């Protein structure tokens, strides 16, 4: 070990090696000869953990000293992905660790495979939160992520006989070395019961007498930035009974009674809801939302009160971001805590509250805008409901004053929807209680202002912002595609691009460099070979890496139109069957994505993809010209296998439906060209990379809107297009379902009669654009040039740029570098 180094914090090969051996011995109680791959993984994890905690403690100390303004990101989901490689990269010791491993005769890549992925999210929203934590730390912004420590994350997906099968995700079964349990940090959370007024030496106050009080306990995970000393905090709450064992019940032999409170309490943080759209009336979901929000706000108020002795300047210390409406009850809960616990009066409490929150909307889908029945909300949260009523009363007064006599506007804007049996509109509560509201892509933010929150934009135009999503290049280039990262660093002369992605722009000058083209193609081909081998083992299909890898990976949803992709595949199949000599460039269609367990049509789409795959992949006449594969268990970990290996990225949602998309950015950053609609962030990707380097198709949002307003008759499109009709008929013929003509009928019927996401209307344009893709692919030099230009121009889509936008436009917070 070099002079000043310490085995628990040193970054040298010797220090890492010694620390690893010590941890294997003293934490795993193993010596190498008998240690399991899991022991080696835990020893490696604990070795990094020390270095993370070293930076985390120093960061916490310097934030405390500097009284730094802090961003708190409230999210019901954090899709973190595996920690080990990400932390090795952010510590800058990837190669050193690999060398230390070799010295011990260990293969780091094998150890990495041991890690269980913390799947505490469904998709885009949860992963965005994780990317933002990485960028906040890398930009040295004081920040805390607050969420729920689900015991079971998003289900593991297997494909049985073509169908999705869900399996419980017991991610904690082997322990989690990346978190620290804070047993003393616990907060009471009330549910049910009633409220009553009482006199508090002359002040009329309200107390909440709950039916049930449970306890939230903190589990902390350090989030280290890239190439900095700052390590921020992710604090996840776990639900526990205040009294975990009732001895009296036990004595009376009521053994279940003895543990009932424990079981009931723990259900609150037991499992992540696997849907990316709300399921009506799920009271456990409301309890989950209130639980983590109340714990988080109590924690922030405690920190503020302990450091300043008051909470009056709470909004100057904290900027709290609501990640969609899932934490929106925070607006009422902060008011409750300030008034009932910190004895404030209404107006000063409201001044603090409305200057504390920012609200980000992530979807326009009406069914995804959360509302809770007043009956359920009031039964679970009687005191917060009283506060919602008072907030609404004051708000509607403002609306009436501003829009005299416009009672229909008042009814439209009310936080309480008086129509369908009285429901609490969470998006309205979030908007009224926030000083800033933003969408997640330019087009989406405009639609938020012109549709779902139009009335609010009329009232408060200054509140509305756009912050286009971004993704972290640390995980989605450096960790996922180390070959590309090495090539970029070589060509750009340093790895500064990892912290400043706009530096990629200077790659444009190399776009015609044949040497780069060769290296570029080699990097892509190697990634495709890796994926091909993995799919061979896990999906029963070994695609030819020389074929065009056409990839669509995202949650399965009708608005994302995976079934439009399948119609194209069936069309190519029919063309080849009709003309075996058709000169089609070999193409492999790769799908990945989970369907919400209760979403019938999404699950049927997965079955259709696998059924079409089965027929095409074994059709001797096709003989590899077309291949279809469904990657099981699409996750952050498996996504990192896909993004580097794609040639074509499918971003084909109906325009106006995908708020932003972030997979589109990850594919393009790894050199894939995009075929897509003018939807979400596709619009901005095309603006950046150049429309000549983007395969655009489809109706615009306006055209789609107009079509539907004038009465969209999908069956006419089937009628007019011979290929579309025969593709639909082939699916109905039973060819892909062992002769069962009924299996896919629900899907084809829905398309022909309703087609809410206008698949049939966009079919022709999509199929013709796809044949242009085939032509472009033939001219590999031209393709590689487009691919290089795509990567060179993706700087805007780093989550560092998004976080800078939030800091400047909304959070008004400055970096606070941790002193080492
Ligand atoms: C209540 C159930 C539920 C769960 C999740 C959601 C999310 C809002 C769905 C989601 O993940 N939205 C995606 O957010 C991404 C990050 O901003 C966007 O890039 C995607 O376009 C958007 O669909 C809605 C409703």
Automatic annotation (TrEMBL):
It comes from the Bacteria. Keywords: Carbohydrate metabolism, Glycogen metabolism, Glycosyltransferase, Pyridoxal phosphate, Transferase. GO terms for biological process: glycogen catabolic process. One of its GO terms (molecular function) is pyridoxal phosphate binding. Belongs to the glycogen phosphorylase family. GO terms for cellular component: cytoplasm. The lineage of its organism: Bacteria, Pseudomonadati, Pseudomonadota, Gammaproteobacteria, Chromatiales. Its EC number is 2.4.1.1. Allosteric enzyme that catalyzes the rate-limiting step in glycogen catabolism, the phosphorolytic cleavage of glycogen to produce glucose-1-phosphate, and plays a central role in maintaining cellular and organismal glucose homeostasis. Phosphorylase is an important allosteric enzyme in carbohydrate metabolism. Enzymes from different sources differ in their regulatory mechanisms and in their natural substrates. However, all known phosphorylases share catalytic and structural properties. PROSITE patterns: PHOSPHORYLASE. It catalyses: [(1->4)-alpha-D-glucosyl](n) + phosphate = [(1->4)-alpha-D-glucosyl](n-1) + alpha-D-glucose 1-phosphate. It comes from Thiocystis violascens (strain ATCC 17096 / DSM 198 / 6111). The modification N6-(pyridoxal phosphate)lysine is found at residue 666. It holds the Pfam family Phosphorylase. This is Alpha-1,4 glucan phosphorylase. Its cofactor is pyridoxal 5'-phosphate.
């Amino acid at each position: 070990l070099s002079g000043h180094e310490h085995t628990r914090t040193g970054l040298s090969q010797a220090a890492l090696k010694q620390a690893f051996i010590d941890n294997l011995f003293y934490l795993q109680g193993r010596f190498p000869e008998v240690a399991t791959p899991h022991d080696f993984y835990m020893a490696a994890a604990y070795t990094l953990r020390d270095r993370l905690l070293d930076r985390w403690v120093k960061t916490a100390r310097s934030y405390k000293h500097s009284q730094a303004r802090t961003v708190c990101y409230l999210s019901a989901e954090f899709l973190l992905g595996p920690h080990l490689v990400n932390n090795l990269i952010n510590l800058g010791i990837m190669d050193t660790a690999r060398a230390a491993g070799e010295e011990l005769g260990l293969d780091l890549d094998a150890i990495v495979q041991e890690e269980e992925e913390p799947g505490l999210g469904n998709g885009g929203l949860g992963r965005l939160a994780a990317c933002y934590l990485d960028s906040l730390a890398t930009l040295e912004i004081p920040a805390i992520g607050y969420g729920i420590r689900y015991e079971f994350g998003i289900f593991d997906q297997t494909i049985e006989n073509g169908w999705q099968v869900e399996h419980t995700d017991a991610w904690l079964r082997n322990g989690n070395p990346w978190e620290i349990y804070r047993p003393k940090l616990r907060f009471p959370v009330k549910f049910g019961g009633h409220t009553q007024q009482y006199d508090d030496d002359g002040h009329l106050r309200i107390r909440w007498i709950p039916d049930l009080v449970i306890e939230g306990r903190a589990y902390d995970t350090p989030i280290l930035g890239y190439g900095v000393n700052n390590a921020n905090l992710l604090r996840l709450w776990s639900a526990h009974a205040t009294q975990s064992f009732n001895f009296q019940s036990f004595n009376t032999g009521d053994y279940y009674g003895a543990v009932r409170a424990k079981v009931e309490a723990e259900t609150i943080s037991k499992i992540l809801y696997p849907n990316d759209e709300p399921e009506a009336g799920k009271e456990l979901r409301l309890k989950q939302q209130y639980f983590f929000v109340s714990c988080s706000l109590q924690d922030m108020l405690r920190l503020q009160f302990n450091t300043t002795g008051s909470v009056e300047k709470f909004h100057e210390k904290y900027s709290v971001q609501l990640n969609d409406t899932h934490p929106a009850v925070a607006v009422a809960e902060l008011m409750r805590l300030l008034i009932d616990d910190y004895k404030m009066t209404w107006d000063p409490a409201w001044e603090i509250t409305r200057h504390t929150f920012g609200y980000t909307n992530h979807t326009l889908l009406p069914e995804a805008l959360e509302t809770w029945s007043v009956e359920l909300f009031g039964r679970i949260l009687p005191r917060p409901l009283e506060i919602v009523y008072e907030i609404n009363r004051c708000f509607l007064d403002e609306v009436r004053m501003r829009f005299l006599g416009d009672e229909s506007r008042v009814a439209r804007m009310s936080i309480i929807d008086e129509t369908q049996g009285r429901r609490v509109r969470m998006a309205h509560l979030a908007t009224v209680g926030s000083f800033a509201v933003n969408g997640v892509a330019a087009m989406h933010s405009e639609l938020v202002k012109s549709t779902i929150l139009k009335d609010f934009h009329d009232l408060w135009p200054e509140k509305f912002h756009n912050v286009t999503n971004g993704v972290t290049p640390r995980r989605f280039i450096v960790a996922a595609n180390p070959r590309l990262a090495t090539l970029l660093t070589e060509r750009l002369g340093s790895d500064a691009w990892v912290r400043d992605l706009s530096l990629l722009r200077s790659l444009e000058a190399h776009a015609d460099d044949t040497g780069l083209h060769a290296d570029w193609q080699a990097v892509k081909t190697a990634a495709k070979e890796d994926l091909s081998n993995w799919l061979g083992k896990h999906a029963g299909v070994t695609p030819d890496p020389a074929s065009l890898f056409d990839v669509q990976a995202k949650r399965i949803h009708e608005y994302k139109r995976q079934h439009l992709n399948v119609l194209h595949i069936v069309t190519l199949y029919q063309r080849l069957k009709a003309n075996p000599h058709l000169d089609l460039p070999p193409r492999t269609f790769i799908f990945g994505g989970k369907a919400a367990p209760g979403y019938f049509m999404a699950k049927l789409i997965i079955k259709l993809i696998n059924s079409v795959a089965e027929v095409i992949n074994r059709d001797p006449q096709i003989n590899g010209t077309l291949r279809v594969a469904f990657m099981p268990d699409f996750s952050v970990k498996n996504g990192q296998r896909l993004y580097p290996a794609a040639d074509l990225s499918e971003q084909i949602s109906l325009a106006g439906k995908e708020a932003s998309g972030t997979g589109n950015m990850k594919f393009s950053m790894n050199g894939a060209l995009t075929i897509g609609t003018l939807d979400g962030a596709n619009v901005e990707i095309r603006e950046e990379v150049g429309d000549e380097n983007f395969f655009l198709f489809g109706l615009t949002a306006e055209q789609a809107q107009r079509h539907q307003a004038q009465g969209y008759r999908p069956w006419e499109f089937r009628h007019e297009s011979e290929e579309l009709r025969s593709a639909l008929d082939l699916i109905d013929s039973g060819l892909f379902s062992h002769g069962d003509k009924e299996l896919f009928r629900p899907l084809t019927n829905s398309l022909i009669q309703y087609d809410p996401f206008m698949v049939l209307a966009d079919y022709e344009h999509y199929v013709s654009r796809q044949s242009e893709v085939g032509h472009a692919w033939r001219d590999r030099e031209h393709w590689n040039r487009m691919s290089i230009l795509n990567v060179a121009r993706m700087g805007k889509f780093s989550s560092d740029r998004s976080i800078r936008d939030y800091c400047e436009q909304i959070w008004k917070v400055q970096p606070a570098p941790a002193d080492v």
